[in-house]
């Protein structure tokens, strides 16, 4: 006698959706299923009806414009770049700066968790905080005694997150644009682009969703929601606002202000989508 909300990506495969729905109704015996796209759930969780949802995940950054709770299909965009790229870039910069822990191998889960933790603690996009700092950290590996290291860092903590805005420092990435209707049997077509900054992708998504309307354009530029764990870096939202405002699209449209809305009630950006799904369920 239970109902369930199934949150799916903005770009989904119809066959997979049918299989999941069948699993929930037939095998798990739920009474009813509500299927909703994650960007729409994000707007419900943030308490707004119209916004640009920027989901910075581990491996992908998804951008979608939502108007009155409805996903604007043509605005959906997915870039193969996310928080994991920041972690890898940070690890590379530290390694090139004589990082004291020499036997780093990011293919090992314990080393990956270490650099994820260091990224969250040390990385910042506030230039005022960039100075020579000395930090202590602990390396915990299976069957080996915990070791304490001391590390001196400088600009590495600022440069690593910039890979989201300057992807040329990474290997060529793939960007995916959908050109078919929601629920098409096949996955959306893919166009490969060597580099595509998040700020430019946001501006282009907004331009497509506004469809020539100046009012919609300004509303989208001042209603950006940042969700996901990949963007949880100090001052990232402020830097992203400045970068989006400096894009060619924003300049040609005479946009005077870009605003990333803060998470409501101090919610963790990682749980905003889940919070929106619970609101729907109620």
UniProtKB/TrEMBL annotation:
SUPFAM superfamilies: Actin-like ATPase domain (SSF53067). InterPro entries: Actin, ATPase_NBD. It holds the Pfam family Actin. It comes from the Eukaryota. Gene3D superfamilies: 3.30.420.40, Actin, Chain A, domain 4. This is Actin-like protein arp8. It comes from Rhizopus stolonifer.
